[in-house]
Write a structure and sequence with these properties.
It is globular, with a radius of gyration of 21 Å. β1, α1 and β2 form a beta-alpha-beta unit. With 281 residues, it is of the alpha/beta class. Helices cover 28% and strands 33% of the residues. It has eight helices and 15 strands. Strands 1, 2, 3, 4, 5, 11, 12, 13, 14 and 15 form a ten-stranded mixed beta sheet that branches. It has three domains: 99 residues, Periplasmic binding protein-like II (D-Maltodextrin-Binding Protein, domain 2, 3-Layer(aba) Sandwich); 75 residues, Periplasmic binding protein-like II (D-Maltodextrin-Binding Protein, domain 2, 3-Layer(aba) Sandwich), CATH 3.40.190.10; 78 residues, Alpha-Beta Plaits.
Length: 281
């Protein structure tokens, strides 16, 4: 069996590292061969699955420092076709790539907004004078370095080897435990898994409306591992609530909870059951 995997490229991104790890797991445990297809944005990687151009997409959903990757949440809410199948966690290491001889020569640092934010304290302490320029991915700015000797890129140390660029600093992340959760999403219904992802909107912004929805899970002793709100993009103060919970949609208590939740929410979307993959990177 063969699968095509979409992810945020180009070569050398953390998303590619996650896609490679998932591809290796597919080969070893499922006897599935995967081909990797890089895309210029996370949204386009997910769109490729919606359009049938890729079988699955490997996308970052949450970072331990910066929180959720909102474009993934928003795309899931908008698309009726995408389902979450699996999750893997990747430890994140950020290096500083540059042709400069020292930090004092640097005037500009390029990287993805998430990487810039995950290294904010280090940048403030060591490079307070530089201009920070956001790019589409952690490797997008690498092509600019040859023409800008006073510029650097924050990217994975693996990218330094791939593109043969000196690594000025090997590890500049603000937290030693920096890691990112990645979801594998597909257009196929996902029935198996120990966790369930869903989201809902409320019919009105009224006192107790959210509490009523959450009590549906509490009274059944269903553990919510994550809850987060996103604006509906309709009116100020209206939100969509995204939930990860422990359990499967075929469990009777989960089925009962979802039935009660549907009765007290405006829109309820179930994004699928998923397993946490024991992948070592």
């Amino acid at each position: 069996m063969k699968l095509s995997l979409a992810y945020l490229g180009p070569t050398g991104t953390n998303s590619e590292t996650a896609a490679l790890a998932y591809s290796a797991w597919l080969s070893d445990s499922q006897r599935v061969t995967a081909t990797l297809n890089p895309h210029p944005s996370i949204a386009l990687a997910m769109q490729s699955v919606i359009k049938g151009e890729a079988d699955r997409a490997v996308v970052p959903i949450e970072n331990s420092i910066e929180g959720s990757v909102t474009v993934v949440l928003d795309t899931l809410w908008r698309s009726p076709k995408l389902q979450v199948h699996q999750e893997l966690t990747l430890p994140i290491c950020h290096g500083l790539l540059s042709y400069a001889n020292s930090l004092t020569e640097l005037k500009t640092v390029y990287s993805h907004p998430q990487a810039l934010a995950q290294c904010q304290q280090w940048l403030e302490n060591n490079l307070p004078q530089v201009q920070l320029v956001p790019t589409k991915s952690t490797t997008d700015g690498i092509q600019l370095l040859k023409d800008e000797p006073t510029a650097a890129v924050i990217s994975a140390p693996r990218a330094a080897k791939i593109y043969e660029i000196p690594l000025l600093e090997t590890d500049i992340k603000d937290s030693p435990d920096n890691c990112t959760r990645f979801w594998i999403v597909s257009g196929q219904i996902s029935d198996r898994g120990s966790h369930l992802a869903l989201a809902f909107s409320l019919p009105r912004n009224a006192p107790g409306a959210l509490v009523k929805a959450l009590e549906i899970f509490a009274c059944r002793n269903i553990n919510l591992s994550k809850i987060e709100s996103r604006p509906t993009k309709r009116s100020l103060g209206e939100y969509i609530f995204f939930i990860d919970l422990e359990g499967n949609s075929h469990d009777q208590q989960i089925r009962d909870a979802l039935a009660d939740l549907a009765a007290c929410t405006e829109v309820l979307k179930v994004f699928g059951n998923y397993n946490l993959l024991p992948i070592a990177v």
